[in-house]
Specification:
The complex is a heterodimer.
Chain A lengths: L2 E4 L7 E8 L4 H10 L5 E3 L7 H16 L8 H9 L5 H8 L8 E7 L6 H6 L4 E3 L4 H4 L2 H8 L3 H6 L2 H11 L4
Antiparallel strand pairs in A: 1-2, 2-4, 2-5, 3-4
Chain B lengths: L6 E5 L4 E4 L6 E2 H11 L3 H20 L2 E2 L8 E3 L8 E3 L6 E2 L3 H18 L4 H14 L3 H15 L2
Antiparallel strand pairs in B: 1-2, 3-5, 4-7, 5-6
Classes of the chains: A alpha+beta, B alpha+beta.
Organism (chain B): Manacus vitellinus (golden-collared manakin)
Keywords (chain B): ATP-binding, Kinase, Nucleotide-binding, Transferase, tRNA processing
Family (chain B): Belongs to the protein kinase superfamily. BUD32 family.
Chain lengths: 174, 154
């Protein structure tokens, strides 16, 4: 049900994605993540077009952590920040992190040398774990286009995923 | 709105850019070679030239100068019949609204065309025609192209 990908550029890192629907305790989960008692990135699945988007964010986060140039304080916070098309950290959390009223949550786990306990994380969610195949149903395409400012011109020649990823990977140059 | 490989990751430490791989693509250069070799000429290459002209017009209208236009820097996504072009290799690119820069951009392509692909003058003519029809600012650019052509003959 969950999906694990190895990062091509950092092969000892594995990214695992878990998707939950009908979640009742988003507020509690968010609190736990902020306190540090839940090791994972809690992401709003409506803003995610494809798991590749998460991989690009995770790849950049790991890279920056290794050269000690993260903009946020933790790897998981950095993943959420990297999803944003701009450089405002709190804005990134508001838009890409989960809010207390959310009923769908995408949890991203990153492990390298120490393995992550999936059951432990999953047991803390009061909701139903579903397959990543359901992610496209949860994507709010209109909102994604608005947040990432994808123009109709662009849509004609590219995929939404490519438009999103380009903005994520080049935001520090612009 | 210009088709080019997506940027996936920029590594400022090693100064590398990780781009999308356009799988099973063929360069326009290789495509022209194979069409000329097989003998199925005119119509498909004319259509290709028109598409190229349109793409370059759109690029120049955004004031993007490629800087190294050759048929090896234009890819065709599979299936080739769709004439789905992708521009690559922006290592020499810059932004400019000057007709002179756009004219030179086209001149570089013309020279590359004629030296790499014999008997393609007609094709390039079709490219320019389509460029002029698509671009809103083509008049001064074509004028400059003519001037640069004259300069080049010295």
């Amino acid at each position: 049900m969950e999906r694990t990908h190895q990062l091509e550029l950092f092969p000892n890192y594995n990214v695992t994605l878990l998707l939950f629907r009908h979640v009742k305790n988003a507020a509690a989960l968010r609190k736990k993540a902020m306190e540090g008692s839940l090791e994972g990135a809690l992401i709003n699945p409506a803003m995610i077009v494809d798991p590749f988007q998460i991989l690009v964010a995770a790849n950049k986060a790991v890279h920056l952590q290794q050269i000690d140039k993260m903009k946020t304080r933790t790897l998981y916070a950095e993943i959420i920040f990297n999803l944003s098309p701009n450089n405002n950290i709190s804005d990134a959390f508001k838009k890409f992190g989960i809010s207390d009223s959310d009923t769908a949550v995408l949890i991203v786990l990153l492990d390298s040398y120490k393995t992550v306990n999936l059951e432990d994380i999953a047991s803390q969610v009061e909701g139903q774990q579903v397959s990543l195949d359901e992610l496209p149903h949860l994507t709010d395409t209109a909102r994604v286009k608005k947040i990432y400012k994808v123009t109709p011109q662009e849509e004609k020649i590219s995929t939404l995923l490519d438009s999103v990823v380009c903005r994520m990977s080049t935001k520090d140059v612009l | 709105g210009i088709p080019a490989p997506a940027v996936y990751f920029v590594d400022y430490v090693t100064n590398s850019i990780y781009l999308e791989d356009i799988v099973d693509s063929v360069t326009v250069q290789d495509h022209i070679y194979s069409v000329q070799r097989s003998g199925n000429d005119t119509s498909s290459l004319q259509d290709l030239a028109e598409k190229m002209g349109e793409l370059l017009a759109r690029m120049h209208d955004e004031d993007i100068i490629h800087g190294d236009l050759t048929t090896a820097n234009l890819l065709l996504r599979p299936p080739v019949e769709k004439l789905d072009l992708v521009l690559i290799d922006f290592g020499l690119s810059f932004i400019s609204g000057l007709p002179e820069d756009k004219g030179v951009d086209l001149y570089v392509l013309e020279k590359a065309f004629i030296s790499t692909h014999p008997d393609t003058e007609v094709m390039f003519k079709a490219l320019l025609k389509s460029y002029a029809a698509t671009s809103k600012k083509s008049g001064p650019v074509i004028k400059k192209l003519d001037e640069v052509r004259l300069r080049g003959r010295k």
